[in-house]
Design goal:
It is a single chain. The chain is an alpha+beta fold. The protein has a domain at 213-352: Roll (T-fold), CATH 3.10.520. The chain is built from ten helices and 17 strands. Helix 7 packs antiparallel against helix 8 and helix 8 (293-306) runs antiparallel to helix 9. Strand 4 (161-164) and strand 5 form a beta hairpin. It is globular.
Length: 353
């Protein structure tokens, strides 16, 4: 006859307590995993575009609200629409005095100047005197007379933007800074920083043609960012996707803010050296950069102006991924982008640059 195991009341209580702890731990793990997978979606409006957020984790709603508030503050600081923004004040005092700026604005200006310098001015945050002549995206878009462009082109030059601590100045009265080319990427920077501070587990923020992702996506899969067809905005279909774990993706596209005049299409990606839309055969450039959305924006614009060979060299300096598409549906990618990009269209060919 088998001996029945007998437990003392104390041992039985200990066993039951242990089982209860294990059950509670298992339930807690299941709950946390479920809660982390739950997400909150919202859409805000800033910088003339809709900003979409998808945030995961217990603090998802708080994180999204914090991101929206931070982006609103960013718009107040760098937009040229209001006279009280840091950039508007800087431009108003051009050629006369140093302007005291918010430290975040100074940091953004330094990011822009870094890309401007390393790209040889292919991206330039002082392009506004010439860009304003074209009024891209406005109600009075036009092709300016060459004499107008030649008059203001000498005032385009990132070297004229100087920073000293939290102060900045523009050398000449006709200089003007404009951060509209990096505002969407900067918004993504603010969004992902807010997710981190609020304790969200993960999140994605999309502003215009800029996207930022934070944290590990629930389920462990990479974030999938669509690469859109660059055919003048008429075909919104995706030609492929970027599968990334983190960072920022920005696209500079020749269909952006374009207009037609005299049977010719003019896009807003001006070459700062000529004052006219760059025409080197590229129609779209996408950059993936881990560190900064604003820098990704500036790099995408610079790469578009530089053309494939110099774009590959520039992104190599930053350790960034780049995808360049020309008007013949040929795609060139660098090594950083090779494993991330997945082509989904038979109309395009891809080669490693």
């Amino acid at each position: 006859m088998k001996k029945v195991l007998e437990l003392s009341p104390k041992k039985l209580a200990a066993v039951l307590t242990g089982v209860l702890i294990l059950v509670l731990a298992l339930l807690a793990a299941i709950f946390l995993r479920y809660d982390a997978a739950r997400h909150y979606e919202c859409t805000n409006y800033a910088f003339g575009t809709y900003i979409q957020q998808t945030v995961y984790g217990k603090a998802r709603e708080q994180a999204a609200a914090s991101a929206a508030a931070a982006i609103g503050d960013l718009e107040d600081r760098i937009s040229l629409q209001g006279e009280d923004s840091d950039i508007a004040k800087l431009d108003a005092e051009a050629g006369s005095d140093w302007t005291q700026l918010n430290e975040k604005t100074v940091s953004l200006l330094n990011t822009c100047l870094d890309v401007a310098e390393k790209s040889g001015g292919a991206y330039d945050p002082t392009l506004y005197p010439v860009a304003s002549l074209w009024d891209f995206g406005g109600l009075s878009s036009r092709v300016p007379d060459r004499s107008e462009v030649e008059k203001f082109l000498p005032y385009v030059g990132y070297e004229n933007l100087r920073i000293d601590g939290n102060k900045a100045s523009l050398k000449y009265h006709s200089n003007a800074a404009d951060l509209s080319a990096v505002e969407n990427g900067a918004a993504c920077d603010e969004g992902t920083a807010a997710y981190r501070s609020a304790g969200a587990s993960a999140g994605l923020i999309a502003a215009g043609r800029s996207v930022g992702v934070y944290g590990r996506k629930p389920g462990g899969k990479p974030w999938s960012i669509a690469v859109q067809s660059p055919q003048n905005g008429k075909d919104p279909a995706s030609i492929g996707s970027l599968e990334i774990g983190s960072g920022f993706v920005s696209t500079a596209d020749s269909s952006e803010n374009s207009f037609r005049s005299g049977g010719v299409t003019y896009h807003s990606l001006l070459n700062p050296k000529t004052g006219y839309p760059e025409n080197n055969g590229l129609v779209s450039v996408t950059v993936w950069y881990e560190k900064s959305g604003a820098a990704a924006d500036a790099l995408a614009r610079a790469c578009f102006v530089l053309g494939p060979e110099k774009a590959l060299a520039l992104t190599e300096r930053y350790g960034a991924g780049v995808l360049l598409i020309d008007g013949k549906n040929k795609i060139v990618i660098n090594g950083r982008m090779q494993d991330a990009f997945h082509l989904a269209s038979s109309s395009y060919t891809v080669k490693r640059g």
